Structure formats: C-alpha cells, structure tokens
Amino acid sequence: MTILENAVRDLLAQYPDILYGFADISYSPLAQEYPSALVLAVPHGKQLTPEIYTEPDFDAAICSSRDRLEAFLEKLEALLKEQHAAYYIPPMAQKNETDLLAEFSYKYAATRAGIGWFGRNDVIITERYGPRVRLSAVLINAPFTYGEPITESRCPEDCHRCVEICPCKALKDVRWDAGKLREEIIDFHRCNRMRSAFISKLGRKSACGLCMTACPFGTPEKAE
Fold first, then answer.
1. Residue 64 lies in a domain
2. Residue 223 domain-assigned?
3. How confident is the chain (224 residues) per 10-residue block, as mean pLDDT?
4. CA distances from residue 80 to 8, 74, 75, 76 in whole angstroms, order as listed
5. Are 117 and 111 in contact (CB under 8 A)?
6. Which residues contact 64 (CB under 8 A, 6 or more apart)?
C-alpha cells in the first residue's frame, strides 16, 4: 500500500462504524482526472424498522448521518491536502428533475468498492446495516487497493418486503445484477412525484424510507 492509502486507512480506523472501500472508476469520465474513489457508508443515526417508523424520525436519522459524514469529510480533506493529493467530492444532488441523475453515482461506486449491492428498492444494501446508511464518495488522483466488486444481489430470492411496503407501488420486484438498468427496478418518476407532493406541507420532499426500514439486513432478525 502507498503512504497515502495507509494514512487514509489509519484515519478510517478511528471510525469503526463507517463502512468504506476503494473502487476503480475507469467506467466514469471523471476517471481521466481521478481514477479512484473512496466510497463511504455512514450508518443512520437511528436504525428504524417499520414498527417504530415515522417520517420525521427517518428524516432526523438521515440528517444525523449526514452531519457525521460531513464532520468526517472535513478531517479526510485535511489529510488529503496534507498529503498533496488531488481530490474531488462529487455532489449528491441530482442535476435536474427530469432524469434524476447525479454527476456521479455513489450507489454504483459502492458496488464497485464491494460495500453492498442494489436491493429491489434500488437502494444499496450492506451486510452490516442493510440500506440504513448515507453514502458518499471522494474521488482521488492516486492508486489504491480496490475492493472486490459485487455484481449481483445477495437478497434472498423470496424476500419482497421493500416491494410490499412501498406506499406508491413504484418498485417492480426485480432482483438486481450488474446488467440491470435503474428503470427495470424502480419507476423513479413515480417515487419522485409522491415524495415531491409533500413539499408544500414539509418544505421539502418526503424522506419516505419505508422500503429501507423493511429490509431484514442490519436488524437483529438477520443476525440470528
């Protein structure tokens, strides 16, 4: 491992609850300048299940993980600057409300880093926390030891909980593999319309995380 990689791993060792992995992003146009991605998955502040779910609690849980992620990224950026490493943190926000795509897919990078796979809800599932994580990626102009990509779903064949609980019936009950397109798994426009309908009431889109809370991965049930 390089000096830079050792330094990044030493920093992450101080945050044992944060999942991470390195990915080769040669598939992305951004790889011309930043060939590697450090992908991070920070657990939600509260690991909700359907029995204790409320939309405000879910929003608070994801905001808590966002704040913790931002605090960690400050330390990581300081380290990268100290090591004179060129880096870029692509925005999470989607570029527009038409195709609902961001500049760089954190989720796809997470599969390439070996952190998780896409569930039937088009959300990344991790073994440790299920889908109850906030993702980010830091693109770095340096080589790293890359994770083993995950190319197919590890969800049980007979598990359809996220599909069944979806309030807008946007999930198509399709099991993911690396060849699947997003639109084969989810009607993302339908999901977005339902969430957007709450803007006038909440001042934001609905956080709606029911499909995440229903996942057995990351729960005591799965650990048994």
1. yes
2. no
3. 96 98 97 98 94 94 96 98 97 74 94 98 97 98 98 97 97 96 94 92 93 93 61
4. 8, 10, 9, 6
5. yes
6. 44, 45, 46
